[in-house]
Amino acid sequence: MAALLATACTASVALAQTTETAASPEKKNWFDDPFLQIASGARGCPVPEGPLYTEAERREQIHSRLERGTTCWLAGQCADSNAYRYDKPLAPKVQAALATVPGARRSSVWAIIQRRWIYLQGCVPSEAVAHRLERAARAVPDVELVVPDLMVGTHGKPPYAVAASWQASKDKRPPHNKTNNE
């Protein structure tokens, strides 16, 4: 009887996990927004999800993206009638500017570029490095706004959505125990 109950419980858990996985809709970078890793020096930094959307979220975003892209041009703030067309040419410029920031190598930082806005996500060793990264991104021509979603250190809840693969690997790790050597 106990073996039958254990088998039933195991099957129930497996079914729940399968249903949960099947129920989560696939997320993709539907709009091909640039998503770059600038530095990878902070081990254990939560990896951002990036510009991933479900099909339903993509449909919700289409109208607002068209509107925001055109509004920039109508307001005379963009030479191009679509602000999102700046993103791919901006990507290498932003990456080059951020890579030269002192302290960047000790950080793990990613950048999402959408309609001339730069979202900086990841972990930095200090507030000073965070401010330097933000200033460097703002200095790139054609950047309209910089959103610094950076955390000092690698512990705590990040101010950005975390990649599902990173979260899954974290859930499998044993809890972090500090020692006197840390």
Features:
about 180 residues, alpha+beta, 4 strands, about 40% helix, disordered C terminus
Describe the structure.
The model is unreliable at 1-21 and 174-182 (pLDDT under 50). The chain is an alpha+beta fold and 182 residues long. Strands 1-2-3-4 form a four-stranded mixed sheet, with helices on one face. The chain has a domain at 33-48 and 84-172. It has helices at residues 2-23, 55-74, 87-99, 127-138, 164-172, and strands spanning 35-40, 108-114, 117-124, 145-152. The chain contains five helices and four strands, in the order H-E-H-H-E-E-H-E-H. A hairpin with a 2-residue loop joins strand 2 and strand 3 (117-124). The termini are far apart.
Q: Within the largest sheet, what's the order of strands?
A: 1-2-3-4
For the secondary structure, the number of strands is 4
How would a crystallographer describe the biggest sheet?
4 strands, mixed
Strand percentage lies at: 15-25%
Order of helices and strands: HEHHEEHEH
- Structural class of the helices, strands and pairings? alpha+beta
The shape is: flat
Short characterization:
With 182 residues, the protein is an alpha+beta fold. The chain has helices at residues 2-23, 55-74, 87-99, 127-138, 164-172; strands at 35-40, 108-114, 117-124, 145-152.
